[in-house]
Amino acid sequence: MKYFIFLLCLATSIVSLAIHAKEEGGFSLSSTRMVVDLNKKDNSVLSLSNTSDKDFLVQSWIEDLKGDSVIWEEFIIVPEVFVVKANSSAQIKVQYIGDKHSLSGRENVYYLSVKNIPKRKKDSDKNALLISTRQQIKLFLRPEGVEQKSELSLDGIDVKYQGENQSLLLTNNNLVSLNFRKIIYNNIDYHDKSIILPGESISVPADNYNQEVSIEVINDYGSVKTIVMPVN
């Protein structure tokens, strides 16, 4: 019984603190994506903003797309662990230090995770729980010789209707990844938010054939461009 009461009190405290944290908030990232372009210099910078009245301890790391493997050997994050003072901002820089020649000549995609932990105030309850949060954005590693313009080229996207599977197959034959926010086919919205890596495909259900498909594509800057493509 005592154990049950303890769990109930703990759950109540967590909910209360979560609501309190949501009200205070104040910690944000400047972008939903980062491009580490090996064709350029000093472009892999992410800004952090702390508009709250408390300090945050920040830690960053890079994971693969599955989120189950941390990448330690190929990247450096500067700084990796640091404090963002109340009502201030900071920046982190990501640098690729791996073997450039080992890259496949195609863009690779990772996740950049940023974890922040609020600093306990001196006059606060020592028994209070501190809730950390983790924000995750996509990190695109673009090898030398592979370029992406702000206006995406769609020549390398192949769209086919597969009647036997009642699906629409989208194939990316480009050297860069394609990030879709929405696919509209037969007046049905598919909020897929998929990334199609170079040389890979995705499929969405499609009961009937239509000669056109509307796709919302996200570019390097996070802007969305709607394009209409023919269906083979």
UniProtKB/TrEMBL annotation:
Residues 26-146 form the Pili assembly chaperone N-terminal domain. Residues 1-21 form the signal peptide. Its main location: periplasm. It is found in: Periplasm. It comes from the Bacteria. GO terms for cellular component: outer membrane-bounded periplasmic space. Keywords: Chaperone, Periplasm, Signal. One of its GO terms (biological process) is cell wall organization. Belongs to the periplasmic pilus chaperone family. This is Molecular chaperone. It comes from Shewanella gaetbuli.
